[in-house]
């Protein structure tokens, strides 16, 4: 049985037991009169572990190499009783030149039965730390990442413990980085973001927490010279002073640059750090500066270390995305200047640079880069035969003045690349460039190809979110007309799980909304009714019908339909909930129940009905599937429906943070803020009267 150590709630370390065979002799035999010339102090202190100092511990560690078996056992047992006081020196001894010492030191510090959790840890933290030491390095890293996802109050102590006592340097640094990253994460509760305390109370709590955490770090790591410990001690100084010590971090990063390992494998060393680790430290430091309102300092730190970014497309994309997400546009411009050759080969990198140039007011440079990006993954020019058809580029005589025909598979691959790029541009809110990427596929591929059809559907979705109803119709109408005329084409699309009725319903929905915009309310009513009958899953159509002005007959008709849908939505929630209680192979998932709960909540909160139940259902959906912006969007609408505008704004703001550049989410947030402004203005007018 291997040695194992137990971390107690008081940060204690006690030996839990060991049985070992005699170690091999590595030194010349001691004289019989003196088993070990350095063992006197060791024997005198055996009965009192608390009296150990660094000198004695060092002597005990050297005693592990004695040629006397009895001395080796005494030294080992004494080190086990000393516990945490010997941990750091034992960790250093893992790389002792004497192999016998290194082996025992590894056993003492890396036993598979280390208990890393304490009774004061949360249940989630204890579960993640259960048998932590028995896992591989990659698995333990995963546990560290999972701990970092817990609320700050639950993650701080376990991560500090790992940063202090994890014997693998790379994992100790990972824990330290995760701990510092807690400061920039927003731990808003998605079930109920309304707090009972005042803003001033929360500010006081934050100050007390910073002082407490600084003390915990200082008490735990004082005197440590590990790279991870130096990071955390500087972090503690920041917490103590209430500001980011930018120059101190700059000096620390410069010091770490001198400790860079030549490759990622070298980062396993206690004295070296990998490029990826140092870049993550820079990112976290910059994020902390931004969180404290010091964007200029964040930019300075990042730009000064742009040269650290590996000259690989994946690394550049990752860094550019992070910089754009944090509005560090000048950093992306600097990256483009350093890595122009790689940028010209990657549409995503080019668009990231184009976005950065646009954000800093260099529109001509942005447009030029976007043009280069669009030209990558070329598609053949096509000759339009009619509004609905183009001639495939698969025949005709060879013309030496024209480029050779592209292989059909190459064309499809390039088209799919354009669609993927467009999807990413939509996520970044770069709708104009995304539209061009979709349109090049639509314009240059036959309408009866699946990839062209998919591009139309994706473009229509984007245009719909932008409320460009006429453009949605223009995009979808040629497709629906071709489907009506070509049964073989329809069958091919159906085989790819393409729903014609859903597309037709969507087109009619936007046709009706366009009519409403143009003042043709009466003409819009049958169009919207038809759209809903074709796709009753799209409850936004019913909501639009409910909000439409009309006579008594129209309102009664919509009310009947609405009552049916609300009862059906409620029934689906209860049926799904009951099915989850019954054992069986087809048991619904939590996400399925969350979907049903959200559908009820969205429908009721936007129309009429039991809004209190809608809010309960929405919160339950978030409990089942947390951090889902679409569900948070519904929850915000439910708060608004019950009259809690402040909570609605807070929840919607969080949803927009998780899903930036979403037009529907941003419109709803603007609606709530305008409602609050009007409410406050009315209250002020009443108070003035």
Characterise the protein shown here.
This protein has helices at 40-44, 54-63, 69-82, 87-93, 99-109, 123-129, 137-148, 152-165, 169-181, 199-221, 227-241, 246-257, 275-291, 295-303, 313-325, 329-338, 340-343, 347-359, 363-375, 408-427, 431-444, 450-465, 469-485, 487-495, 500-517, 521-534, 539-547, 552-581, 590-606, 611-624, 629-641, 645-658, 663-688; strands spanning 5-7, 13-15. The chain is mainly α. Strands 1-2 form a two-stranded antiparallel sheet. The longest helix is centred in the last third of the chain and has 30 residues, at 552-581. The protein is globular. It starts with a strand and ends with a helix. InterPro entries: TPR-like_helical_dom_sf (IPR011990). This is Tetratricopeptide repeat protein.
